[in-house]
């Protein structure tokens, strides 16, 4: 058992506090209408730099000494037992390092990229707030603090996806005018922002219900306390039969944030934001939040179950846990495959990368949940998920930042007008190749090692899942190479004249993505060392237990995977560059056109969701609006009319006719006598 | 408990109105003196915030009692005293904060409105008279929050109704006389039902005290009043009366008219402050006066709350008039307050009280924003004609987002805490023991809370985003006068309340356990 070190709130909490302070300064400057762009950009970069330094220092301390716990006694809300605690263990400390450094590079890139933008201040406010929220989410010692960071990322993604809210057509995503089943398949920035926040909020509410149930059973929101009390609350929930339901409701949050099926739709239209924001959302924040939560949770659940091995409740708990992990694993595998298939045919650069993100995160869920299926190999599962998270953060940030430059050069978000850039920008081409090959899973880049670990975990748990993972790996290699080769080496399909001014990006934009691409290589080449870090990390992570060797075994499966990936890479490259293939022509012909449209229109997921929920919602509002008018009519038309009618009847009895009065008198007396008789 | 040295609570109830009357009598009618009146009234109205922060929040005093107590025991009425405890603190803060800042906001808005009416050839009482009514209205709401006695509560309630009725009738929009009358009649239907109910209790107990001022304990004699046979009508009338005031689904018909057509500063008080007080009253009275009865109808109330949230939200989605949209949103928000109270748990009730405050902040901000467009964009209210306004009003767009976040329950707004507490209340109250109950609860919560998020973010888009449709973009040209700064201050207070929630939550925690003693919650 590794000892936890209690440290003061400051400076250790600066890792999440500094970006929030930066955001506050930016907000005040914005309110004071400061015109100088540097104030915003530099404040943001500087505050994220502080965060990166503090978290790196903390991570170094964690790896050498053990977990650090800051601000445990700094109570914020005593009724709910919530403190402003910052908890660095293996998982959170390394995650914080990745998030902060990748965000820093993106921030540096943004300073130049956003130059002259009319929303410069607003951009950096939300950017910095975004990083702060993500860091808080990662380092929070309790679920409420984590939820605050969680919601913060949701808010900032909403604002940044809709950054260009005046909705000019060049900021849209999707082909303008394209409709499926009557629903548009193109989205304006302000529309995409609303989609992002509403889709993810469904999950957020599930998450909230889940933690409320946990709180009622365990009596705490504190993650460390929840870990030690896990056997009790697991068996309590399992005895009622609500363990898997609770966990699934809670995991809705993670699935929605990480854009897993059926929530993936928000992420693909999130491409309306400025490109560095796509890099931020996909690489460092937001979508990584979901998988991070899952990585945080998995060992706690499994360690809790192991502690019950000798008790009666073990069978119940383990059965319900397996149920839960099976569902998550299949969702992960399905998402990985589904989104990869969409990426094969897409013709928008950022969209392809977006599909790829959801697909790769599917891998991470698959890797981590495999240990749940096995009810064992916890460390291996967590390390496989986490190492792929890191690889992905690095190569995906590089890819998006390169994409930002290419889109700028081509004046188009589509890949058809792009092509032949390798001659004009060699360093950018190098970055794109390296990051692309890492995504494709080609050895010895980092993406290869981490993906292999996931596939290996999947194979151990359920060969069917491994098959899905390998097929997805082939698709990934294919769509990645298609983009790399077409953009860099083949002539553009259309609008060739526009790329004449192509050249390298300015240094502050070039260096961040070059550094990230080289990091992919460095991590891959130094895998023996890196795997030791991961191993040490797993040892220092809450409830994970024994360390593992995070190396890749050269099994038959690995060899097969390497082989099919390499064949795909070479084949696609030759197909496009040397043979000059243009599959578009093929996609026009039956029966390929149906398949092409099916994939291009994202398996018709969006129209189906819109038809059921939006269509149903619109009908419901229409119906209720009518009902409301009915209620209004009842109160404000019928009731007064009934009143006037009653008044008219009463008035007509009092017109001075004696016989009426006598009749009324007799009737009244009769009624009174009757009542008296009956009630005696 | 602590008895204040001076009758400060009475002062906040009486002084603002007296001041406005004095200005009227002395003939201080220049724009400058009206501004002085507005600012001084604001300062007096703000006093409860400071009292609560210091005594209840910081010093953890259980309750504050005003030394001036009107002893009417001889008439079997009890003691009319003014008190503040953890339960009423969020209510008092909400009323105090909003009425104080709207007081300053009034000046520009009402100058514009009265000018508009004059140009239509309508003669209405001037700004001075407006302030007499406004201050009386504000103070009467504070009085309701302070009341320890049912008669006191009812008197303040009546005062608030009469003053707001006059404000709508004089300065409202559209068919204001008819709407004011409609408002008056329906709220009095609620008021009469409530009165009939409390009379039964008061006469049977021989006192109308809810809290005994000397000890600040609940008057347990209330709960001992038998309610069998026809007497069951008494609690039913009280609940019905309060539900009409809250405008929950089915008896909400009066609200969209009144809140949409009242002059906007009054809408900003009516919508979040006044109707929510009925929710507070429900929380204060029902578990202590008729615990068994309210426990028996808990499920019905919870169901009604969900229906109200979804119904109000769905109809709001169809509204094109900004103020009517906000009015339906208020109906939906009352569902949240009812939901929290109806769980009859400490978390739920505390969440409902906090939600009163978050709704007060959020909805006041949004109504005040509507007022900005009405005064500065030629009476613009139609959301179909809005769009892209963030370009012309960046700060207003930012504060509106904060306003909506309070309704949705997103951090860093106070709404997050109320949302979490209400949810904890539901889970504790229903303690899901089977997958079916758990999934049902989760679905209800997700649907209800999603409706709020949906109309909020869609409205944000309709109003502020997309191409600019009306007026010209004048980037950096948005003038932040005191009129708009007041909105910013309210919005920022919501964020401060989020951070400093402990100051409200600890007093709430101590006060919910005696409150819910008889229903087994807490």
Structure description:
The complex is a heterodimer of chains A (680) and B (522). Chain A has 680 residues and is mainly alpha-helical. Chain A folds into three domains: 1-141, no CATH class; 142-600, no CATH class; 608-678, no CATH class. In chain A, 73% of the residues lie in helices and 3% in strands. Chain A has 26 helices and seven strands. In chain A, the strands form three sheets. In chain A, strands 1-2-5 form a three-stranded mixed β-sheet. In chain A, a hairpin with a 4-residue loop joins β3 (75-77) and β4. Chain A is globular, with a radius of gyration of 30 Å. Chain A starts with a strand and ends with a helix. With 522 residues, chain B is mostly helical. Chain B has one domain (2-519). Chain B has helices at residues 8-26, 31-58, 89-119, 127-146, 150-171, 176-205, 233-246, 255-261, 264-289, 291-296, 298-318, 322-342, 346-376, 389-392, 394-408, 415-430, 435-464, 482-499, 502-516, and strands at residues 2-3, 63-65, 70-72, 78-80, 83-85, 211-212, 217-218. In chain B, α7 packs antiparallel against α9 and α15 runs parallel beside α18 (482-499).
Strand order of the largest sheet of chain B: 1-2-5
Assign the structural class of chain B, choosing from mainly alpha, mainly beta, alpha/beta, alpha+beta, or little secondary structure: mainly alpha
Quaternary state of the chains: heterodimer
Helices of chain A, by number, come to: 26
Strand order in the largest sheet of chain A: 1-2-5
User: How far is the first residue's CA from the last residue's CA of chain A?
Assistant: 83 Å
The geometry of chain A reads as globular
- Return Rg of chain B in Å: 22 Å
How much β-strand is present in the residues of chain A? Answer: under 5%
| Biggest sheet statistics of chain B | 3 strands, mixed
- Give helix and strand order of chain B, one letter per element, not per position: EHHEEEEHHHHEEHHHHHHHHHHHHH
Indicate the radius of gyration of chain A in whole angstroms. Answer: 30 Å
Please provide the count of β strands of chain A: 7
């Amino acid at each position: 058992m590794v000892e936890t070190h209690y440290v003061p709130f400051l400076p250790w909490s600066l890792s999440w506090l500094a970006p929030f302070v930066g955001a506050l300064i930016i907000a005040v400057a914005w309110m004071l209408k400061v015109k100088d762009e540097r104030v915003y950009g530099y404040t943001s970069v500087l505050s994220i730099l502080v965060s990166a330094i503090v978290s790196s220092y903390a991570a170094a301390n964690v790896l050498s000494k053990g977990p650090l716990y800051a601000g445990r006694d700094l109570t914020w809300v005593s009724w709910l037992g919530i403190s402003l605690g910052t908890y660095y263990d293996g998982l959170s400390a390394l995650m914080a390092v990745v998030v902060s450094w990748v965000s820093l590079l993106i921030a540096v890139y943004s300073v130049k990229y956003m130059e002259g933008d009319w929303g410069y201040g607003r951009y950096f406010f939300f950017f910095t707030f975004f990083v702060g929220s993500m860091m808080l989410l990662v380092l929070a010692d309790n679920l409420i603090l984590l939820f605050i960071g969680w919601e913060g990322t949701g808010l900032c993604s909403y604002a940044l996806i809709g950054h260009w809210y005046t909705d000019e057509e060049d900021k849209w995503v999707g082909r303008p005018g394209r409709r499926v089943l009557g629903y548009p398949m193109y989205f304006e920035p302000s529309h995409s922002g609303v989609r992002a926040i509403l889709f993810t909020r469904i999950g957020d509410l599930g998450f909230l219900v889940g933690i409320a149930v946990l709180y009622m059973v365990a009596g705490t929101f504190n993650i460390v306390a929840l870990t030690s009390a896990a056997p009790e609350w697991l068996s309590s929930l399992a005895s009622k039969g609500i363990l898997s339901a609770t966990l699934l409701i809670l995991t809705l949050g993670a699935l929605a944030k990480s854009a897993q099926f059926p929530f993936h739709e928000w992420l693909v239209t999130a491409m309306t934001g400025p490109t560095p924001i796509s890099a931020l959302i996909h690489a460092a924040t937001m979508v990584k939040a979901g998988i991070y939560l899952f990585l945080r949770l998995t060992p706690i659940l499994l360690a809790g179950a192991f502690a019950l091995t000798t008790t009666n409740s073990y069978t119940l708990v383990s059965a319900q846990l397996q149920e839960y992990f099976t569902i998550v694993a299949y969702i992960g595998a399905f998402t990985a495959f589904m989104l990869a298939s969409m990426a094969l045919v897409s013709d928008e650069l950022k969209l392809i990368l977006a599909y790829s993100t959801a697909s790769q995160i599917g891998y991470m869920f698959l890797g981590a949940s495999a240990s749940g299926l096995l009810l064992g190999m916890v460390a291996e599962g967590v390390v496989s998920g986490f190492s792929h998270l890191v690889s992905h953060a690095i190569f995906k940030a590089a890819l998006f930042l390169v994409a930002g430059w290419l889109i700028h050069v081509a004046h188009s978000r589509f890949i058809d007008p792009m092509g032949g850039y390798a001659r004009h920008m060699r360093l950018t081409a190098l970055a794109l190749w390296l990051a692309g090959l890492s995504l494709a899973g080609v050895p010895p880049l980092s993406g290869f090692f981490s993906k292999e670990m996931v596939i290996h975990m999947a194979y151990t748990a359920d060969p069917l899942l491994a098959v899905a993972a390998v097929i997805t790996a082939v698709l990934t290699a294919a769509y990645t190479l298609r983009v790399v080769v077409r953009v860099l080496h083949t002539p553009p399909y259309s609008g060739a004249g526009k790329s004449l001014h192509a050249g390298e990006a300015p240094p502050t934009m070039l260096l961040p993505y070059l550094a990230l691409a080289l990091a992919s290589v460095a991590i891959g080449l130094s895998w023996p060392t890196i795997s030791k870090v991961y191993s040490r990390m797993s040892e220092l992570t809450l409830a994970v237990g024994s360390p593992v060797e995070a190396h890749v075994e050269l099994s038959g499966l690995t060899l097969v995977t390497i082989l099919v990936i390499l064949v795909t890479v070479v084949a696609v490259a030759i197909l496009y560059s040397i043979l000059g293939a243009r599959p578009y022509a093929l996609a026009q012909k039956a029966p390929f056109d149906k398949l092409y449209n099916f994939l291009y229109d994202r398996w018709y997921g969006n129209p189906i969701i819109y038809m059921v929920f939006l269509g149903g919602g619109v009908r419901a509002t229409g119906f209720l609006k009518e009902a409301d008018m009915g209620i209004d009519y009842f109160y404000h038309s019928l009731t007064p009319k009934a009143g006037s009618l009653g008044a008219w009847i009463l008035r007509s009895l009092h017109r001075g006719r004696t016989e009426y009065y006598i009749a009324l008198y007799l009737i009244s007396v009769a009624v009174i006598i009757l009542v008296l008789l009956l009630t005696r | 408990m602590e008895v204040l040295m001076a009758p400060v609570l009475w002062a906040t109830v009486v002084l603002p109105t007296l001041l406005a009357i004095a200005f009227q009598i002395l003939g201080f009618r220049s724009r400058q003196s009206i501004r002085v009146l507005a600012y001084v009234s604001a300062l007096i109205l703000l006093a409860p915030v400071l009292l609560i922060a210091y005594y209840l929040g910081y010093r953890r005093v259980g309750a504050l009692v005003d030394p001036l107590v009107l002893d009417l025991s001889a008439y079997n009425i009890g003691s009319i005293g003014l008190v503040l405890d953890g339960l009423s603190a969020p209510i008092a803060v909400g009323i105090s904060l909003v009425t104080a800042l709207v007081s300053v906001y009034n000046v520009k808005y009402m100058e514009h409105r009265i000018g508009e009416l004059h140009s239509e050839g309508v003669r209405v009482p001037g700004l001075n008279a407006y302030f007499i009514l406004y201050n009386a209205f504000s103070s009467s709401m504070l009085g309701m929050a302070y009341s320890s006695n049912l008669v006191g509560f009812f008197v303040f309630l009546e005062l608030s109704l009469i003053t707001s009725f006059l404000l709508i009738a004089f300065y409202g929009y559209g068919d204001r006389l008819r709407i004011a009358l409609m408002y008056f009649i329906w709220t009095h239907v609620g008021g009469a039902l409530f009165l009939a109910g409390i009379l039964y209790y008061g006469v049977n107990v021989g006192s109308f005290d809810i809290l005994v001022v000397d000890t600040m304990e609940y008057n347990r004699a209330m709960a001992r009043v038998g309610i069998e046979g026809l007497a069951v009508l008494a609690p039913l009338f009280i609940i019905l009366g309060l539900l009409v005031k809250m405008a929950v689904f089915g008896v909400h018909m009066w609200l969209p008219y009144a809140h949409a057509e009242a002059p906007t500063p009054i809408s900003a008080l009516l919508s979040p402050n006044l109707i929510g007080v009925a929710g507070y009253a429900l929380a204060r009275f029902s578990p202590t006066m008729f615990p068994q009865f309210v426990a028996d109808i808990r499920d019905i109330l919870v169901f009604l709350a969900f229906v109200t949230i979804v119904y109000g939200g769905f109809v709001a989605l169809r509204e094109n008039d900004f103020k009517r949209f906000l009015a339906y949103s208020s109906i939906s928000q009352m569902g949240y307050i009812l939901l929290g109270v109806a769980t009859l748990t400490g978390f739920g009730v505390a969440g409902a009280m906090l939600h009163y405050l978050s709704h007060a902040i959020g909805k006041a901000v949004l109504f005040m924003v509507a007022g900005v467009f009405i005064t500065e964009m030629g009476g613009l209210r139609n959301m179909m004609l809005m769009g892209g306004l963030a370009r012309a009003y960046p700060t207003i767009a930012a504060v509106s987002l904060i306003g909506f976040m309070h309704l949705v329950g997103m951090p860093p707004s106070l709404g997050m805490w109320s949302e979490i507490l209400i949810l904890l209340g539901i889970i504790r109250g229903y303690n899901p023991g089977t997958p079916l109950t758990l999934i049902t609860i989760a679905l209800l919560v997700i649907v209800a809370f999603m409706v709020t998020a949906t109309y909020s973010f869609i409205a944000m888009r309709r109003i502020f985003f997309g191409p600019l449709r009306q007026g010209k973009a004048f980037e950096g040209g948005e003038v932040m006068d005191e009129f708009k700064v007041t909105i910013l201050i309210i919005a920022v207070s919501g964020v401060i309340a989020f951070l400093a929630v402990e100051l409200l939550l600890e007093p709430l925690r101590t006060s919910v356990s005696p409150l819910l003693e008889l229903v087994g919650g807490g």
